[in-house]
Write a structure and sequence with these properties.
Blueprint: E1 2-6, H1 11-22, E2 26-30, E3 47-50, H2 57-67, E4 71-74, H3 88-108, E5 112-116, H4 140-159, E6 163-168, E7 171-172, H5 185-194, E8 208-210, E9 212-213, H6 218-226, E10 231-235, E11 240-242, H7 243-256
Parallel strand pairs: 1-2, 1-4, 2-3, 4-5, 5-6, 6-10, 7-9
Antiparallel strand pairs: 8-11
């Protein structure tokens, strides 16, 4: 298949692009390198990298006209829930307008749209989160993600767009941006350790999180390429750790490499 991957220099995109290439697919990768890194972009004769911001509608139109992909995996986003109330305009342009530009072209070229949403759509509801819960986002980031989900549903009903939605949870792994100080607790802990700074834990540290390794996302994404339509899937692990345990683990591993 010919597959378009946005955010190909980010955690999900860099890993899944490599997986797709190893399985014989042709991949076009798009990233503006605002949150990912050029070093994370794969190299292959079956891979084409295009650097631009998806907010530029004309470039999106031209790309689809040239490539006519079978499937789009839209991983590109700026995931900063706590920061989003202070960057409203950027948040909606980056997470909503860019997604809408892609929806238009997927309709025009009959491209299946696989959208990575967020657990942020559930807001402050009591976990565990299940797909049948009505989203109640509590920040602009969650609002933007839920708005895209609603727009995909409308595009499906009005134009027959094939789509699936994935809501990942606490993903970690290689090609992760650990330098963004506003997102991902493990990334923050690792960066603090590398900089020989104290790890900061809010509260008593006994709050729990389930963390999911990126390697276990490959098979579920594969199923979405050809199966299902109009479905929403939460993806995450089911083993919980306290933040104290996480901090201790990062400290112990850091110590092995000379970082106290």
């Amino acid at each position: 298949m010919k597959i378009l991957v946005t955010g190909c220099a980010g955690l999900l995109g860099a890993n899944y692009t490599r997986h797709l290439l190893s399985n014989g697919h042709e991949v076009i990768g798009v990233d503006d390198l605002s949150g990912g890194y050029k070093a994370f972009v794969p190299k292959s004769e079956n891979f084409t990298f295009v650097k631009f911001n998806l907010e530029k509608r004309k470039k999106v139109v031209d790309l689809f006209e040239e490539q006519k992909p079978d499937v789009l995996l839209h991983f590109a986003a700026y995931a900063a829930e706590g920061l989003s109330p202070f960057i409203r305009n950027f948040n909606y342009r980056n997470n909503l307008i860019c997604s809408a530009n892609l929806i238009n072209e997927c309709i025009n070229y009959n491209t299946k749209y696989i959208f990575t949403s967020s657990m942020a759509v559930y807001g402050a509801q009591e976990p565990p989160f299940t797909e049948d819960k009505i989203p109640q986002p509590v920040d602009p980031y969650g609002v933007a993600k839920y708005a895209v989900e609603c727009d995909l549903k409308l595009a499906h009903e009005q134009f027959g767009l094939c789509y699936n939605i994935v809501r990942p949870h606490n993903v970690l792994g290689i090609y992760q941006n650990i330098w963004d100080k506003y997102r991902n607790v493990i990334g923050i802990f690792i960066r603090k350790t590398l900089n020989k700074e104290p790890i900061l834990v809010y509260g008593d540290g006994e709050q729990t999180r389930a963390f999911s390794d990126i390697q276990y996302y490959m098979q579920p994404f594969d199923k979405l390429l050809t199966d299902y339509d109009g479905e929403i899937f939460n993806i995450g692990a089911d083993k919980y750790f306290t933040l104290n345990e996480v901090a201790k683990t990062v400290q112990e591993i850091g110590k092995k490499y000379g970082y106290e």
